[in-house]
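3.2 Worked example (two chains)
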Amino acid sequence: MVQLIFRKFEELGTLNAVLQYLVTHHIQIGVRVLSGPTKGDLEWHRPNRATLQNLLRHPTYAGAYAYGRRQVDPRKKKAGRPHTGRVVKPCEEWLVLIKDHHPAYISWEKYQQNIAQLKSNQNRSNEQGHPRQGVGLLCGLLVCGRCGGRMAVQYSHGQDHHRYICAREKVDYGGEICQHLSGACLDEYVVDQVLQALEPAALELSLAAARHLEEDRLELDKVWHQRLERAQFETDRARRHYQLVEPENRLVARQLAQEWEAKLQAQQQLQEDYERFCCEKPKQLSPDQQQQIRRLAQDLPALWSVPTTTQAQRKEIIRQVIDKIIVTVEGTSEQVQVMIEWSGGFSCQAQIIRPVAKWTQLSYYPQLCERLEQLVEANLTTDEIVDCLHQEGFRPPKRRQTFTREIVQTLIRHLGLRPRPLPKAREPLSEHEWWLPELAVTLGMPTVTLYNWVRRGWVKARQQPTSPKHWIIWADEIELERLRTHRQRPVGDILRQRWKGKVPTIAIPPE
């Protein structure tokens, strides 16, 4: 039992995970009674956090005798309360420490690793700690390339979006944020590198996974056998108590018979639970299960992305192969230098692109503006400009992979670029016909006002067949004079005449 707890802590990494494992498999912990009439007896209780923590922290299980683990601090001692002021001291300050004093469950080195793991799992720890369920895969591994501090993960919109930030300068000295970048782009790059590194070891991983599952099931089967033996022992003892009682003691015999019956029912229920466990999880993996493990190991990307793989498991895989990731953002641009230090001592360096909020943060923004100006002066359409920018490798900010018509048009307006008007094919005009803009200039009036007259039917006009947006107005000398007079009249008089049914007369061109 004790060995199982230590092994699962080494595998799972957190006290809570070990507790959940024991509860899930209905494993009880033996505890010696410290007081009362049954003092010294061994009782079996359901697992709890305090018992597990004391078990992992106590040096007795590492074969060491220790005295003075808790000492009285006079500064924390309260008057009238003799048992106050006790504080836990590190092993360097214990009064007595004798290693290899008795047989041990774990080595002293493993004990120290467990203590360090428990300390790093605390929320305020600066170490890596054990991975949690947040979407940020690299929390605890990132190091700022500018100041050398640890980068933290910051979530927004719940757990959907995250970024990595180095706020050491701001928190400690009241300065500015050192650097930050979106978490999605960095996670994608690191995951690709990890999957490529694990691909050659796919077969070994599948064999190790199968072996680990079989060992875990054998360990659980051993625990079940111990529980069955304990239940059999309790049943036999209850039977002996009943058989040894004198028949004249009917009340005692009746009570012992009830206890024996309860032990028999508990034993039978435990046996049924064990048989159910054996059906659900046999000791040996079936050929189909072994083949499924090999197939999943060979397709690591699919195994990585399935919903059954938790974020904590993905983080644990990354931490098994990566020691540290050094990140350096080049100024405020989109370029980020990433150096991965692998567990074997090898390191690799690459440059990735992060999303930025502004066009001016792009490292190639001056070249993009210059090229966009050239394309506009060449009178290319918006679609042609989009194609040229894609072919030349330009990309918009926020890690978009493609330009759109709206993005290009917005940028053109922002830069104040105006394309030169293309010469439009115009049909030849008949006698006394005018293009609307030219007639507006002749009459000395705004083009929009003359267009409003066309909409109201106050002039004789028609649309160009090849270009419906262009209007042609008929106006001879008499019509021009009428339009000038009409232009000088107040708008109110014109509208009042129209309300009375007196619409201005429009001259009809001769046939």
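3.2.1 Second chain
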Amino acid sequence: MAVAVELPGTMEATVRFVEGTPPASIVEETISRLDAGGVANELLAASALAVSRSTELPADHHGGPVHPVSGVHAVHHAGSWLTGDWAKMPVVHSVALANRHVHSPEMGPMIMPSLPADSPKGSREEQLEAFRQAIRSSEPMLAQRIFLGLYETHRPGDILDAMLETALRRNGMDDHYFLYTVHSIRALHCIGWQWAPVVLRPVVRYLSTNMRAVVDLESGFTSEYVESNLAAYREYWRFEALIDEHRLLERVTRLGSGDDEDAAVGALGERIADGTPFAAIPGMVAEALAEGLSLAGVAEAMSYGAALLHLRTDYGNPFDVHLHTGINTRRYLLDVPEVSLRNKLLGLLGWANGPEVRLCEPRVSWPPRFDGGEAGALDRESLLDAIERSITERTPPDRSKSVEQLYCGEEVKRTLGLAQAYADAGHDSGAFFQLMGELVCRDDSSEMHAFKHLQAAREEYESSREPYRRAHLVSAAKMAWCTYGFDQDVYRQAREHLAI
């Protein structure tokens, strides 16, 4: 008989709180726990554990643990830099979303069974290869048992590198093969590696599930969409060929960037965003690396280009965050020593190949910046007020349309111009991101996408050089605009108990 996974210490009771509390009262009871001295990070960990062990993985990527776990990194960090009671809101959202998924008849409840660890014979590398092979062979139970064995003996980076073989290859089919994999590792950095045996098992299962489940999916997708994703998947060999053609494994020896690359980083970023077909981007990246631009410099240039592309689209989908989160996640990989250079290169070369990045390509139609006009003369507080009004007073989104059919229109250009004026004036970025955080904390319809984009934009802003960092700040304002006006039930319930 199967035995359900049970967590050690007080975590079992906290996870059961997330799983068992009626959805109508989860917001109030979560805030009560925080006010009584409950640790936000323990509740965040409990939400990740609950949604991982008690919800079913969906056939595609909507529902189950994919987005709640992928949002843990953003929630953890937003809670550290938001001020006042707003700092409680990210974890309240995380707990409420996990609870909603557990109680949804489409995805919960599911019971994760305890499994014995399987330690293959051979060297450490042979054990990792057995793990890769179980994933390749679509053997999810075997892959999970091997993972549990590797957890005891291998470093997190080793396990991540092994999972990346499939995650990177399948990115063309669905960005979440890659994003969910890497974001889960980042989540464990925040809540503790000791929870990997629960949090990573659904990831391993997702990677080792036969792709036919996605290919045959019809509801909500056209056959053209499926065919385009299959075509992108089949193009993966091009990235491997570019590595060999340009001898990148030999030539890429400079990892960190410096002041001597300032101009080259900006030039490559602007080339990526100037209307170049997305299919041409991998070749541009490979050439820049072969010509000596550092790995970090190329990644920063791609990040700059991603922000400019986001600003150039009239796409109004509140889930449209993958340009930013995709490159932010790949930049994270550069700092993981156990991830091979080959996988780091394949990650960068495949950035624009994911379907939710490719969806943006036909919507690139605007210039990369808009002039705020007279707003540039306003002081910081007046400009922040104007930015906030331009978002909160926007025309509500048309809820009769699917999110893929939503476009920004001329109205968002006011927000973009004001945010550009703020960036150009050199006003305090902390005050700006606090405002964006307060706006994002009102959203509970995007399944953590708004939080993920905000944190990615903030990290990219902080890790980029002037003047290229400004595009990330403006991009955060655009996403806040796109997200605003959808469901705000968690916020409305929370404000009765918080000073927000």
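3.3 Remarks
Residues 11-103 form one domain.
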